[in-house]
Amino acid sequence: MTDSTERPIVVFDLDNTLSDATHRQRFLERKPRDWDGFFNAAPQDPPIPEGVAMAVESARECEVVYLTGRPERCRLDTLEWLERHGLPDGRVYMRRDDDRRPARRTKLETLRRLARGREVRLLVDDDELVCDDAEQAGFTVFRARWVLPSVTLRVAQEREGRT
Predict the structure, then answer these.
(1) Where are the beta strands (DSSP E) in 72-138?
(2) Residues forming a β-bridge with 108
(3) pLDDT value of position 68
(4) Closest CA to 69 of 146, 142, 129, 14
(5) Does 2 map to a domain?
(6) Of the chain's two ends, which shows fewer C-beta atoms within 10 Å, N or C?
(7) Domain of 140, in residue numbers
(8) Whole-structure pTM value
(9) Percentage of residues in the chain with pLDDT exceeding 70?
(10) Taking CA 31 as the corner, what is the angle to CA 27 and CA 33, rounded to the nearest 5 degrees?
């Protein structure tokens, strides 16, 4: 049951939704993939103006929540990045460091948990599989198509469950 006295939630993904992670793709094109290099470079991501503007606008009416496939060990860098780029304050949900399930599973699990107590008005994400599963589960989705999709990243997300 949802609590109608609280503001609804808008959920934003980070990588390639709010932050442009394309400069980090090179770490995933190597064999073996360099996940540490990929995540260590995240603080240098430039913000995506369309995503940032949407988050700021959403905060006027809703509570903003961040839902990322980044591992928990990236929390401090992630919080600093959000603050540095003027994004609204909000809870940040990250995967456990040892969680290798695909993002579409971990994110849908968190969305359902959030929806038990609050209205989840919108999910904003670039991952087509996450968006498809969220829509099938009844969530309203905005597909962030501000950055060209990376086949390398999509395959890595699905097969290795790292982001």
Answers:
(1) 92-95, 120-125
(2) none
(3) 94
(4) 14
(5) no
(6) N
(7) 9-160
(8) 0.89
(9) 88
(10) 40
Tens of pLDDT, residues 129-156: 999 999 999 999 999 999 877 655 665 5
Q: CA-to-CA distance for 127 and 158, rounded, in angstroms? A: 10
Residue 1 lies in a domain: no
Closest CA to 106 of 161, 66, 30: 161
Cα-based torsion angle of the residue sequence 53, 44, 25, 144 in order, rounded to the nearest 10 degrees: -10
Give every CB contact of residue 78 below 8 A, 6+ residues apart in sequence.
14, 42, 66, 68, 70, 92, 94
Q: Is 34 within a domain?
A: yes
Chain segment 14-32, per-residue pLDDT in tens: 999 999 999 998 998 888 8
The residues, ordered by sequence, that sit 6+ positions from 28 with a Cβ below 8 Å of its Cβ are 34, 35, 38, 150, 152, 153, 156
CB 55 within 8 Å of CB 125: no
Q: CATH number for the domain including 129?
A: 3.40.50.1000
Residue 3 falls inside a structural domain: no
Other Cβ atoms less than 10 A from the Cβ of 159: the count is 10
